[in-house]
Amino acid sequence: MTLWTGAEAAKATGGRATTDWAATGVSIDTRTLQPGDLFVALKAARDGHDFVAQALEKGAAAALVSRVPEGVAEDAPLLIVDDVQTGLEALGRAGRARTEARVVAITGSVGKTSTKEMLRTVLGAHGRVHAAEASYNNHWGVPLTLARMPRDTEFAVIEIGMNHPGEIAPLSRMARPHVALVTIVAPAHLEAFESIDGIAHEKASIFDGLEPGGVAIWNGDLPTSGILQARAEEMAGISVSFGEAEGCDMRVTSVRAQDACSVAQAAFSGGEMLYKIDAPGRHFAINGAAVLAVCEVLDLDRALSLAAMGRWHPGAGRGAHVTIQLDAADPSATLALFDDAYNANPASVAAALAVLAAAPVQNDVGRVSRGRRVAVLGDMKELGPTGPELHAGLARLEATQALTKVHCVGPLMRHLHEALPEHQRGMWSETSDEMAVHLPRHLDAGDVVMVKGSLSMGLARVVDAIRNMGDGNARDEAEG
User: Fold this and answer.
1) Is 452 marked as binding a ligand?
2) In the chain, how many domains are there?
3) Angle, CA 273 vertex, CA 263 and CA 322 arms, to 5°
4) Fewer beta carbons within 10 Å, N or C terminal of the chain?
5) pLDDT for the residue 479
6) Which annotated residues bind ATP (predicted)?
7) Could you tell me what percent of the chain has a pLDDT over 90?
8) Which DSSP helix (H) or strand (E) runs through 292?
């Protein structure tokens, strides 16, 4: 199905199409480009113009450029604009303008990507959904997501992130959501903000882009909830709070975390909802309530929403539960892994540790008589001068104190390593590669292991080393 013709894209961007081309997708990376894509030559670590010839050779329908690149013919299929980033933004606005989809925008210090995926699953029970890939939530990710939106989309979920003040509101205005959601405000990106209040004001600015009469949904359990509420009431037609606190509009009244799922109950507009999520964790259940609030304000069928919620499970690196068979001849010789290695800040680490502390272990199946709860934690980045203190403070969490061992990766996590009591202090390494080499021999059947850290720490390599203990027999719980 054609997504953009040369004439449409030229009109949207004010650029010039050199030929009459038609694109079925939009790409910014030649490594993942599919035949028929419009290749956008953004400048990042390298200038995308250097890859235009390669993109065309791989079957790109055309390339969005600010000049004809060296080695590319003058009559090649191009869309020439004054500036590629500005051109992509214009294409995104045009993609948003031509759809009748109901648009949901989401931000938060923790949980925005998993909640976006939850929304993708639940809204998918009601119609055709378009949502951002991975964490495409920045100045190029949002317009790229909008530019990729098919005309016949019925629901769109746009994730919006930030690293510095003033980033969220322009992206929200570009997305023009009918519903905007803030999952949580927590210490993250503190290098760029003076306080947690500053982060709350920035997150609340997602409500600035709401369509007239739009709905603001915000977390009512936070010290900064008042900031979210004030902006919601100023910018939205309807303001809806969610959480466990008294007075929340969508109030979670109970959460029962089981071995591989969470069962929760919530009250909304005088009615009760019982729902299940295919992952353990109170944080998943609370964000699930926010998703159900979105469905309620969009007036979607509640039974369909609840059924779809039960089918959602976190993806790799975001809390996925994996069972690893350590001995093919002994079905009981398994190790449980929580793969949460994609990102980390104090709030998300605390939530993950709570899941680990409550996870059941197996006894009398390994070399040691009792199964153990083991955490492998990597540095939490962008916390500014408070970083060492916030890392060391993890030792004081009740969930941390319930663990058997905590292994630490990175210079900041050394502060946690030194703050731990000796009986809990596991290994410390500078890099994930070092931890990946030594950790497997410290694990055993019956253990439950959680791996979490900021993406740049590369803890996926530790996850891979644990998975490889199963010699190919690792099994994702969600895949049966």
Assistant:
1) no
2) 3
3) 25
4) C
5) 32
6) 108-114
7) 73
8) helix 282-297
- 421-457 pLDDT, tens digit each: 999 999 999 999 999 999 999 999 999 999 999 888 9
Residue 224, domain CATH? 3.40.1190.10
Tokens in use for 359? 């996870």
Confidence of residue 292 (pLDDT cuts 50, 70, 90): very high
Any domain includes 110: yes
Domain, as residue range, for 71: 4-83
The verdict on 210 and 288 lying in the same domain is yes
Do residues 330 and 407 both lie within one domain? yes
For residue 103, which of 302, 290, 294 has the smallest C-alpha distance? 294
How many Å from the N-terminal Cα to the C-terminal Cα in the chain? Answer: 34
- Report the residue count for the chain: 480
Give dist(CA 267, CA 283) in Å, integer: 17
Q: 3-class DSSP state for residue 216?
A: strand
Model pTM? Answer: 0.78
Do residues 133 and 209 both lie within one domain? yes
What is the number of H-type helices and E-type strands within the chain? 16, 23
Q: Is the pLDDT of residue 79 over 50?
A: yes
In this predicted structure, the answer to whether residue 10 has a pLDDT above a threshold of 60 is yes
Are residues 326 and 305 part of one domain?
no
Does residue 112 have a known ligand-binding role?
yes
Task: Return the closest-CA partner of residue 201 out of 156, 160, 247, 168.
Answer: 168
Does 109 count as an annotated binding residue?
yes
**What average pLDDT score do residues 347-372 get?**
87
314 domain-assigned: no
111 is in an annotated binding site: yes
User: Residue 445 falls within a domain, yes or no?
Assistant: yes
8-17, 68-77, 254-263: segment of lowest average pLDDT: 254-263
| Whether residue 332 is found in the same domain as residue 444 | yes
Check whether 110 is labelled as a binding-site residue: yes
Helix crossing, 84-97 with 6-13: angle to 10°?
Answer: 110
- 55 and 166 inside one domain: no
The predicted pLDDT at position 368 comes to 78
Residue 140 lies in a domain: yes
What pLDDT was estimated at residue 471? 55
Q: Is 93 within 8 Å of 82 (Cβ atoms)?
A: no
- Do residues 201 and 326 share a domain? no
**Residue 157: which of 188, 186, 187, 183 has the closest Cα?**
183
| 140 and 287 share one domain | yes
> Does residue 366 carry a pLDDT above 90?
no
Contact 295, 305 (CB under 8 A): yes
Q: In 3-state terms, what secondary structure has residue 338?
A: strand
